Amino acid sequence: MFDKVLLIRPQNVYNYNNYPPLNLISIGSKLKSAGYKVEIINCAFEKNPLETINNKLRDVLFAGISLLTSESPDTYQIIKYIKQSSNIPTAVGGWHCTLFPEQMANCEYVDYVIAGEGEDNIVEVAETIKNGKKNDGKIFGKKMLNLETLPLPDYGIDKNIERFISNYLTDKLSEYVRQPMRWLPYESSRGCPSHCTFCINVVADNTRYRKKSAEKVVSEIEHIVKKYNLTHLKIIDDNFFVDIKRVREICEGIIKKDLNITWDGECRCDYFNDRMLNDETLKLVKRSGLVQLTLGIESGSPHTLQLMKKGITPDQAELAVKRCNEHKIIARSSFILEIPGESKGDINQTISFINKLRKYPYFTCGVGTFRPYPKCELTEKLLKEGYLTEPENFVEWTNKEIIDMYTSAEYIRPWQVIGRYSESAAYYLNMESSVRLGNHQINNKIDKIKNTIFVFLARLRNRWMFYKVPFDKDLYKKFLTNFYKRRQDLEKGGSYPLSRPELAGRKE
């Protein structure tokens, strides 16, 4: 029996491929530690993905695909092709499968479904197939893993890893770190103890915070930084700062090892207090290389924050931004407009709050309209009220209009109170923050002048809160498309996001 496993990352409908597939790298590392050979195919980088997959199917134990909702169309095409052209078993996992395991199990082209964290389950799937065992149904249920026992992530499993390392990180921090930047994402913990009504972690029962020890984290970071010659580390934990004692130990370890890197992570606004992110701790994290914190502010309206169950106030949010600014740490803040139950006044309150926070030089923001993550409290409310319908099978999830309804960051949806206004507001607020394109990314003088004019017009619109006749938005979209197409041609096929802001909550 073969001992090779083929892991596949499907293409998404937004042509967004800036991050390496850390989920596949993690489960691939676990398979390797169990004695299996692993290969990753990233469909976005293949001229003919199905042909590439077909060439790799020989002598394979099974094919594993991890998918987000936005990757459903390509996933369906892949698993259908595999089952119609071979007898290779297919296993699917990822956030979409965690949300809809039964739907995935009912798909005729799927043999195994992994719900929740996949490292242990993927090995169980491999053992089941290799030894001819029978599993009780297609679904391998959720398991809460001990992160301390996970093997060191072997990023080299992905043959495209150098492409990701040297790819431009579309983030505000790129203005403040040395270039060329070499970066990778890293995960030190899982779960978030908060219970926000819009968050996928609550739905996926991922509110139990689990962590690697500070010693393990420092050891892994040292290995990764030295092996791949990194200058920056993007810590992708949903809530890195839950255990502040561990954070201090990690920072002290980075300093002691003299790793000479910058890093960024996510943080709650109410952690800026005397016990957690006080002046002493902020100085320490800054000294260890912290250049940016992603703050989930989400709204400037107290009423909306209550609807979200955020557990913070606008005053706490401004204090967090202010403290970041004092320590020259970028406050990369996320906001959501059109939360179900919001009024026009709530939305304008958020826009005004963002305008107010612009006085802090290290403040930047990503703004989107509410994305109804399946199964979350706010989405269930919309389903009951008839504003939204949920697909009944995996094939229905391959419809681009349905995918946009559930996952698009800037979209007009039926329950919104001022949808067109909010969609334009989100776009212009992002434009002012240069989350899509900053002047520091542009070498051509004419392009730099054009971009400066677009940002200036966006700033005026945001201060006046005037979003009618968005002619400059349409022109800006054309400018971006042409800019990135020219860059892509120069880079001989590099993959860049064309019109998608980086927002908190990437798990769409």
Sequence-ordered SSE layout with sheet pairings:
Blueprint: E1 4-9, H1 22-33, E2 37-42, H2 49-56, E3 62-66, H3 72-85, E4 90-93, H4 95-99, H5 101-105, E5 112-114, H6 119-130, E6 139-140, H7 161-166, E7 183-186, E8 189-190, H8 200-203, E9 210-211, H9 214-228, E10 232-235, H10 244-256, E11 262-267, H11 279-287, E12 290-298, H12 302-308, H13 314-326, E13 330-337, H14 344-357, E14 363-369, H15 377-384, H16 400-407, H17 419-433, H18 445-464, H19 471-490
Parallel strand pairs: 1-2, 1-3, 3-4, 4-5, 5-6, 7-10, 10-11, 11-12, 12-13, 13-14
Antiparallel strand pairs: 8-9
Helix pairs in contact: 1-6, 9-10, 10-11, 17-18, 18-19
Distance between the termini: 36 Å
- State the CATH class of the largest domain: Alpha Beta
Strand order, main sheet: write it out: 2-1-3-4-5-6
Radius of gyration (Å): 22 Å
CATH architecture of the largest domain: Alpha-Beta Horseshoe
Largest sheet: 6 strands, parallel
Query: Superfamily at the CATH H level of the largest domain?
Result: tm_1862 like domain
State the secondary-structure class.
alpha/beta
CATH topology of the largest domain: pyruvate-formate lyase- activating enzyme
What would the average pLDDT be, to the nearest integer? 92
Ranges where pLDDT stays below 50 over 5 or more residues in a row are: 492-508
Number of E-type strands: 14
Broad shape: globular
Number of domains: 2
Beta content: 5-15%
Q: State the share of residues found in helices, binned by percent.
A: 40-55%
Number of helical regions: 19
